């Protein structure tokens, strides 16, 4: 609802022609000049008519002198008072001189009347002589023009220069000065009248001195008239002073020049002109005062009307303001500077729960919590210092005890005189708004946390496909930082073959088909392709695409492993079936070859052929035996065996087989667990592995035979689907040979696959070992690096029903972790992820790197890394040992723990690590990891 403010009615309090200003400053109008000129003209005509008869004697009337002089003195005194009153306001020197001139004229007129002979005494008062009144007349008529000339001299624009002191003191000084001057002159012309030359002859008429003096006085008066004429601009008083000076000249001429003696026509006429001269300015002043009074009365009436209008206007506005305050949705409160509530609107009642009767007169602490009272006092202190406070968020207390979040706008409250007497507060309730803001903040924070911690890749693009936001998980998935992608087009990172499919999905999303699911490949930082499954949607309000991409690497690796298992099973089924049927054929051949041999015993040439057939059948039987072993269908005779004893026996048999150029090093764990396995098949498996190692070391080398108790945990089992978590006995056969290329590792267990020359291997040795281990419920793992050698680890299930060994008891002690920072360096993404999970589960802060270059960058950037946990054999220009050496050069205090798929003994004896360097062989259980981490950190 709009509120219309009442409009204030303006009343014009000024007249069209404003004559309320002073005559000394009010510019003369043409009417003023015309009126003055008319009076001067009439006076001049009467003067001309009177001049011929000026010497005509008339009846002597001494009372005329008293009446005339009294009237003249009264007029001049009134004029002087009126001019002094104007001077008290305008403070101009010119006006002070003119006021003093009229005061001088009035005083001189009174003294002249008192000293006039025959009026109050035969010879006059004050000891007057025969020439006293004549000299007083000349002083009187010569003094006034002098004061007028002083007025002309000091007059300027707006009255002239102002005095610097008090007007009261100036007026008193003028009174005293004029009085002293008249007294001094009176004393001279009375007490010293004998010293002055006579102005009147004894028989009547004027002396020569009289003619000279009267001529000087008349000339002085004329000079005053001329000065007034040329002193422009003319004020009203200037125009009438010129009329006065004209009458003054006529007075002097008639009573001092053209007349012959006292009481003639000129004597009386001159006195009348003098009285007119005194009346002119007084009349104008009185007329102007009457006009001013009438104007003032009208002005007062208009002001009263204006006041009534203002009261009505402000009354309506005050009522409207009151209605606004009462209808405001915000609480409006006023309080004194000592914190006492003086005003309380309805919104305040609703907000704080107190009625106006309950709140007004109470301290503001009524609604201020205890811990906020110092703040409330501080606000009042700032208000008392003329400071306004805007948008101050704070907490206040309702009557029911509930806390309110409010925004305060506080302003000083002033009295009519402008003094600060209190404070005006506007309180806006933001409790719900703050709760909404807090809820929104939490939601934003939760989304940011999801965005920051998501293992999936989250991307936000604009409508043109340019990246706006990229989640930090891009570092793990694509090897890039968010800054590498933000601002760039998605086309720079998507595989060209998947680009059009991605664009089609984006277009479909913009048509409203939300939650689009599709696969697209992106390029990793190192150049390889990463397949991602995408969920995408389009937000029309913000014009953004939102994508969530899940890395399919693990899924594809698991699928590949599953396919490998299926492949091996399928091959096993096939080879098992072939071997079974082939065994049936061989059974017939070997069963009948003896009969044939007996039949041709007397024929050597046929006996030799029979022997060849028998040898071939034997080789076929061995072949089927290997095939059945791979197919896990060979007949096993498992029993509980001592793996250490079997391994030592195998080592003895291998010495003559391998030759003197190969050194055999048994490294056996003293308390190795017994295993439930076929000893003959195990011996054959070790022999096959040793022969393969020999072929990889044509120039000689070292063969390490090692046993160890191992626990394969759930984490390892999750990465190897064919493994069941549990206790195993590990038998490792490691060599220092040429190694196996990485692209052939996955095929080494396939039947008939071999890298040897034709005629130097059937390709069934490793496949037989693989089948035997799987049929025994075990697990086999091969580690190999070209140029470094190969390590094959056989994990056989531990025999059940035996007592817990000392090794087991050590492994079952409580696992201890820590809070140090550990840098994990591993080139295999799956293994790195597994290690990161284990390290973090022990309480450590884990950082990760895929190669030595990334690791060194982290070491340089993060000075708080406590331990480098690195694989030894890594692709690139720097292996794990070289990385450790470079890290030690940069950070001498950095601890190092190595890990490798090779066994510790194999690594050390291969010359790749110094003796005593800490190494954790893969795979390892969590307790072993925890123990080695603490050992390395304490080293």
UniProtKB/TrEMBL annotation:
One of the Pfam families matching this protein, by short name: Response_reg
Domain PAC positions: 390-442
Reactions catalysed, as given in the entry: ATP + protein L-histidine = ADP + protein N-phospho-L-histidine
Domain PAS: 317-387, 443-513
Enzyme class: transferase
EC number: 2.7.13.3
Single GO BP term: regulation of DNA-templated transcription
Residue ranges constituting the Response regulatory domain according to the UniProt record: 821-937
Transmembrane portions of the chain: 35-55, 61-83, 95-114, 134-154, 175-196, 208-230, 237-258, 270-287
Membrane recorded as keyword: yes
PANTHER family according to UniProt: HISTIDINE KINASE, SENSOR HISTIDINE KINASE
Protein name, entry field: histidine kinase
